[in-house]
Specification:
eight-stranded parallel barrel, single chain, 8 strands, binds 2-phosphoglycolic acid, alpha/beta, 231 residues
């Protein structure tokens, strides 16, 4: 079973989300996880959460206790409305919301304390890759997780592949997935993300050490995403 995750980012409205779920029709044993804007989480959990189909948040507060954190949404709140997965550390959050490795780890810990499964995004810029520093860069991003004992899901998303149509070669993806897994003694799940679509998904899902995909742009089309989920 692979994990096929969607990331809607800040797209859609209520009608779009409802239509998407109505149009998404996939016959698959894979676990499908759909990352929605926060405001559509609760109704989507109520209407659409099933055993092989889960709803994910796209971010969460690094603060675990309730308090004076205007604009924040806690892991307790996600748990309260039945959200079972949450994306953390997406490169867009690292870029626009000052997310860093420490805050990503704190968010991971908060989610874990509520038994919500974090999907931890990591990935290097083109500059880092061209300087041949990508393996060290990713080692730094995952270093804090080395002492974690539970199963971890990482989404390896090279920044240069997100929304660009560029996909790393099989060798590049496999090199990175085994590099990530080599840091851990326990089981680690590695998804690949960045310009995944229904044309390249089965090839990616068949790569060594790749346990699923995280899909942005192509997930917004329910039929396209269903094809990816079935690939
Ligand atoms: P993309 O985005 O599939 O549009 O490249 C992936 C992501 O940002 O998670």
């Amino acid at each position: 079973m692979k994990i096929i995750a969607a990331n809607f980012k800040m797209n859609g409205d209520r009608e779009f989300v409802d239509n998407w779920f109505q149009n998404f029709d996939a016959d698959t044993e894979n676990l499908v996880v759909v990352g929605l804007p926060a405001i559509y989480l609760e109704s989507s959990v109520q209407n659409f959460n099933k055993s092989h189909f889960k709803i994910a948040a796209q971010n969460v507060s690094k603060f675990n206790n309730p308090g004076a954190y205007t604009g924040q949404m806690s892991s307790a709140m996600l748990n309260d409305v039945g959200v079972e997965f949450c994306i953390v550390g997406h490169s867009e959050a690292r870029e626009h919301l000052c997310e860093d490795n420490q805050s990503v780890y704190e968010k991971y810990s908060c989610l874990k304390s509520f038994s919500i499964t974090p999907i931890v995004c990591i990935g290097e810029s083109l500059e880092v890759r061209e300087a041949n520093n990508h393996l060290d860069f990713i080692s730094d991003q995952i270093e804090k997780f080395n002492t974690a004992e539970d199963k971890i899901i990482f989404a390896y998303e090279p920044i240069w592949a997100i929304g660009t149509g560029l996909v790393p070669t099989q060798e590049q993806i496999e090199e990175m997935s085994s590099h990530i897994k080599s840091h851990f003694s326990q089981q680690v799940t590695v998804l690949y993300g960045g310009s995944v679509n229904s044309k390249n998904s089965s090839e990616i899902l068949n790569m060594n050490n790749i346990d699923g995909v995280l899909v942005g742009g192509a997930s917004l089309n329910a039929e396209e995403f269903a094809n990816i989920a079935q690939s």
